[in-house]
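Kindly inspect this chain:
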Amino acid sequence: MAGQEDKRNDVFKFNSTGAPSGSQEKTEDKDRVIARLRGEWTRPLVGDRQLSLRLTAEQGREEKNTGTRDFNASGALTKTTLQQDEQDEREFAGRVRLSGVAFERHFWSVGLEGVLKDWETDKTTIENGVFKSPTAADRFRVEERRVAAFVQDEWRMGRSSVLTPGLRLERIRRESEDGSGVERTGTTGVLNPSLHLLHRWDPATNLRASVARTLRLPKLDDLAPGVDLKGGTLTNPDKGGNPDLRPERAWGLELGIERFFRREGVVGLNVFYRDVQDLIERQVVSEGGRFVSRPFNVGDARIWGAEVDLKARMDGIGLTGLALTFNYARLFSEVTTPGVKEKRRIKDQPSYVFNVGLDYEIKPYGLTIGAIYNYLPAMTNSEITGDGNTKLKFESAKKLLDVYAVQPLGRHFKVRLAVRNVLKDDKFRDETTFKPDGSFSARETRLEESSRTWFVSLEGRW
């Protein structure tokens, strides 16, 4: 996969009197290339047993150039910054799995997995035409070694129920090194149990329930302490990592019901609850006169909500070849932060989100065309900053429309054309800061222009 992305951001600043105090223009162009190879081998053994082996190799490289121009209140250029960022990532993974049948009702499987990852970044900065010497944080490397053993049993209890218990033992070791040679090492071991139940209430109705413990590791680039230049402002802070991040641990519970109707039609209702420890969130901090967004373990959280899914073909009402998909989720959360009495919502979590999709198949040609529309409502969040000020943030609604077409080429190949963000939806953000006494402190607005993205892919199976 090869891709190119260009961005432009305009930031406007206002002082405590409401008068303009400056502006900023930022451009970013990014090139990314990923190559992936995967192979799987399966061999039948004695009886109903089966052995499978899967190997995966992946390598990616990203090159990004970011240019920033700062202006004062009168529009005069005060500073120019150019940052070049190179990232390289390699991953090798393998899995061996043995499965079989016991007592005609138990479909068991055991296995081992291993993952080796290596990620490194190198940043260079030119400020007002002068090359800046790299800091220890500008060069960073992370190695990850992950080993896991798992066991699972699908127990068919009669004709209408399947109970699936599982157990996963995992050990993760991460080693990092910055540009000055300072090393950090962290090891995490966890035992994650799970239990899933599927009950067929009647030929057209399924009931589902599950409880599971999960582990969410920080992304490797979130561990890098170096700063990726954005705007350095409240609404468009620079982006950095945190090498001291701990993984998120969570218990999750889900209950659902799905009802089948007509040809390939299904409607489902699902409710969920998650209890999270060491929640990871990004917080904006002031560093050297610029604002930087970094991830931190902010405390514990509870997340709950409900989701409705619908999939239906329109043949029954005369629209042959047309299929509709719809999804709506209502979301709630509560974060408990040590030392803070008031509980709050998870940052940037929308109150609801919905998706609508349409697929139309032109059978004489085998052509399928479709569209997916995603909507997130506008959000307003309030938080207390480290200096005691109150920051009120408004972010505009997100309206994303993607369209695509898939055309078979013979029996074994098909070509796919997709266009993402057809509406060229722009992002608007407004942040206003108030002092502890309630008086106005500062305000920033940010407009991020977007563009359409085109994808062409060719897939073959034989």
Summary: The CA atoms of residues 147 and 280 lie 23 Å apart. The chain has one domain: 2-349. The two ends are 21 Å apart (CA to CA).
